[in-house]
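Work Package 4 report. The design task specified in the project plan requires that, given a folded chain encoded as structure tokens, an amino acid be chosen for each position. We show below one input record used in the internal validation round.
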């Protein structure tokens, strides 16, 4: 009997699956010796119904084509050449994120936003791979566009996905309207503040605030009145020739916009007040009508554009008791000069704002029109002919009187300009 016949005879004398191993024991071979005994292609050594030519392991009856595969155990039970690629897509479990779906593998084409990560990159809702899902990324096909991206302003692309490419400061106003698009406090809807800047983008710095603060002085009460017709009577700040003053503004009478430049409260029996015959300022106050003061002559003359206005009251005249409450006006071409009198157009005072009802001077020593002092003998513009004495001309009936500081006269005088 040939060796092959002997082996088959011994094997077949035992139950299926044990024949070969029994034959080996009887013939004195070992498991290692099994591999040394070649089988013919039509042998079915493990008696699993598959001959060696078809069985990828003809020594293991649990391994043959069609056997149930136990995945990822290192044994190819069904002889298809694969133990770690369950879905047969060519990618082993270690690389395939879903080894039961052949449409899912690192080489698969991604179908975006369907809830399946076809290409196993860990992402189904971030097409551009910038780390931001579609729900947050305003352009999920451009990796340079996402909520954390740096914005390149005014290029037509909203890189940071905040809904805006033309409003750098985020104040709700685009660069076409915002005069300073790097500062959210500056835009057409902002409130103007006194800082020398144009917060509301109307082309004017500190507009609407002129005069309200020392840092935002106006040119005059008249300028404030023109810019802000609703501004009421009160104190405001002005700047004249580089110097700021807090002044009292009359925004109501005679079309409004008058600046109080001098206030004279007669001191009683003293004939005159020290300093009133100089061109400089007199007194510390510029707003208190209970105290005497005068701005410098140069400031007064710089402020005059339209009119001078003088208002005086008194209860005693130089000839006896009287009642005076008079307002007179002078033309703008008059010059206020505390140190002298001068000739010219200011020989006439007027009883109305429109310069009607003039009182023409005939003798400067009989007709006195102001706070300043000068020598008698010339026509007075805006001064008195007796130094330090006469303060204001008051009209009692048809009689014009100047107050010269006699006991009990106590006149009050205000000079306004606009």
């Amino acid at each position: 009997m040939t060796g092959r016949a002997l082996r088959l005879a011994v094997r077949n004398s035992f139950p299926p699956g044990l024949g070969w191993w029994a034959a080996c024991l009887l013939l004195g071979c070992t498991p290692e010796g099994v591999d040394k005994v070649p089988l013919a292609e039509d042998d079915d050594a493990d008696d699993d119904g598959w001959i060696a030519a078809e069985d990828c392991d003809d020594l293991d009856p649990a391994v043959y084509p069609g056997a149930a595969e136990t995945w990822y155990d290192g044994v190819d039970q069904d002889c298809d050449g694969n133990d770690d690629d369950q879905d047969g897509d060519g990618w082993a479990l270690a690389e395939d994120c879903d080894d039961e779906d052949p449409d899912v593998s690192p080489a698969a084409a991604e179908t975006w936003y369907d809830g399946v990560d076809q290409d196993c990159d860990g992402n189904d809702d971030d097409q551009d791979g910038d780390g931001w899902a579609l729900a947050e990324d305003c352009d999920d096909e451009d990796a340079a566009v996402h909520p954390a991206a740096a914005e390149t302003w005014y290029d037509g692309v909203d890189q940071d996905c905040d809904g805006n490419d033309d409003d750098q400061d985020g104040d709700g106003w685009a660069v076409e309207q915002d005069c300073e698009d790097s500062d959210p406090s500056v835009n057409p809807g902002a409130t103007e503040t006194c800082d020398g800047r144009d917060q509301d983008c109307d082309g004017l710095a500190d507009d609407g605030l002129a005069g309200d603060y020392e840092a935002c002085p106006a040119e005059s009460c008249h300028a404030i009145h023109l810019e802000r017709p609703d501004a009421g009577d009160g104190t405001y700040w002005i700047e004249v020739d580089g110097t700021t003053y807090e002044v009292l503004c009359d925004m109501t009478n005679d079309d409004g916009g008058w600046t109080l430049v001098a206030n004279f409260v007669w001191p009683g029996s003293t004939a005159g007040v020290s300093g009133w015959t100089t061109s400089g300022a007199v007194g510390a106050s510029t707003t208190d009508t209970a105290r005497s003061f005068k701005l410098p002559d140069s400031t007064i003359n710089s402020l005059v554009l339209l009119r001078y206005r003088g208002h005086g009251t008194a209860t005693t005249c130089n000839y006896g008791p009287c009642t005076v409450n008079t307002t007179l006006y002078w033309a703008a071409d008059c010059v206020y000069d505390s140190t002298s009198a001068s000739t010219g157009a200011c020989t006439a005072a007027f009883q109305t704002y429109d310069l009607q009802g003039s009182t023409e001077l005939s003798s400067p020593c009989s007709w006195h029109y102001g706070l300043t002092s000068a020598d008698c003998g010339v026509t007075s513009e805006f001064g008195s002919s007796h130094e330090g004495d006469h303060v204001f001309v008051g009209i009692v009936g048809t009689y014009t009187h100047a107050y010269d500081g006699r006991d009990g006269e106590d006149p009050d005088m205000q000079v306004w300009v606009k």
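The radius of gyration is 55 Å. Validation will be extended to a larger panel in the next phase.
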